[in-house]
Amino acid sequence: MSELIERIIESINIVDFISEYVQLKKRGKNYVGLCPFHHEKHPSFTVNPEAQLFYCFGCGKGGNVLNFVTEFYCCSFNEAVQMLSERLGITEKKDPIIEFNIKMAKLFHNTLLKSKRAQQYLDSRNISVEDAKKFNIGLIPKNFSDILRKKDLESVAEKAGISKKLSYVLAGRISFAFIDQLGNVCGFAARTMENKEPKYINTATSLLFKKEKMLFGLNFIKNKTKVYIVEGYFDAITCLKHDIPAVATGGTALTVHQLRQLAHFDKVIAAFDGDKAGFKAALKAFKNAVITNIVVSAVFLPEGEDPDSLIRKQGKESFLNLKEFELSDVFLNIINKLPANKAVKKLNRFKKFLNSVHTEYAKILRKRLEIENITSLRNSREKDNEFEKHLLYILFSDKKILKHAAEKNLLCVLSPNAQQAVKSYLETEKLPQDCPYTPLLAKATISPASKEIVTKTVKLLQIKKTKMALK
């Protein structure tokens, strides 16, 4: 083992290898770049070609090429040795799981080439046979279990995450091969061609395949500075076909392990559905971004669309032009829409979370959020609501004055809900059912405000309107 490790270190030029993951620039005798293990604006990651070592002055990570692989792929040292030895072809015998996965990828693709139905299905998704070859798409044979048994591959298949039971479930599905940046086929996802659940099934966890650590398409975006994170395999493939660097999580929530593999990108953008579930996923991703020290932006898709459908219907620009939001802004926007008591509780919980995370991003957020100030803003907004209620009570006290204020467009200072309520009252002389302002109207009817107060209120509205126009 020690001899193998020495051969790996001697055979791989660390500058050339790390350049596949990090943009390096020569500085004196060394090469520098942005660290792939933590977020930074100024390069502190240094590679020394003479010593064949790397070190980051920002986060303290360092070592040889094997140490780099263990950190980057979140794998064990032995797994790093295995991956690099396979890459170099200097092992006496190939790892049986890698060998098996390579054979299966070829088998699945060849099966696809013989199936008109599978090709028609892919064609309906704008995936050609050439695309299928490029992106390692195949079709798992219907007699998959028999093939494994006849070729005496059941034992190694089990180690690769394909049990006998699973082989029956996978049969007849479209396959997607997960390939890491070292070129190893690590595992597979499989999609049904019918509308039946589950749509997708993955090979089970193995030495090489850990779903929560995998990103489909990562091997296609080497040397890119920007990456989109999408959910589905077809989403990633469509993006890649249109020269949009993208990786897919495969339907799982974005994990810390997946994010860490994207630390070397200058810009990371996650695409979410524009519904409640999408915002919930964005908040979870935000927490993981803080933990990994990676600033992640978000785009939210139009209702009923995913990146694949949006690009195919409206072109790549429709996706690239989606408005970007930093996840911290998304978080604050959601907080600001909550009732005051819930907002305070959520902010306090988030404050505790930030205090438990010791990353530069968390430190920046602690300063930026200024939670106590946000709470005061929240309280201020509640005071504004109380002021609005008092204003409505006064206006409801004199219908002629209220009508005059509406005609002069003085009610623009009110919230949209309040404006709608006033409009309804002026048109029908009553408020909508379950209207929150009904008690105010009742109060104004029973005990109206004095004419002097009503007149002063109208003048106040005129001043507020003028101030709004000047902003």
Could you characterize what this model shows?
The chain has helices at 2-11, 14-18, 65-73, 77-88, 96-113, 116-124, 129-134, 144-150, 154-159, 164-170, 233-241, 256-260, 276-292, 307-314, 316-320, 327-336, 340-356, 360-369, 371-396, 399-407, 416-428, 438-446, 451-470, and strands spanning 25-27, 30-33, 45-48, 53-56, 62-63, 137-139, 174-179, 185-191, 200-202, 226-230, 246-248, 267-273, 296-301, 325-326. It is α+β, with helices and mostly antiparallel strands. The protein folds into 4 domains: 2-88, Zinc finger, CHC2-typedomain (DNA Primase, Chain A); 96-209, DNA primase, catalytic core, N-terminal domain (DNA primase DNAg catalytic core, N-terminal domain), CATH 3.90.980.10; 223-369, 3-Layer(aba) Sandwich (Dna Topoisomerase Vi A Subunit, Chain: A, domain 2); 378-470, no CATH class. The strands form 3 sheets. Strands 1-2-3-4-5 form a 5-stranded antiparallel β-sheet. Strands 11-10-12-13-14 form a 5-stranded mixed β-sheet. Helix 3 packs across helix 4 (77-88), helix 17 (340-356) runs antiparallel to helix 19 and helix 19 packs across helix 22. Mean pLDDT is 86; it is low at 371-378.
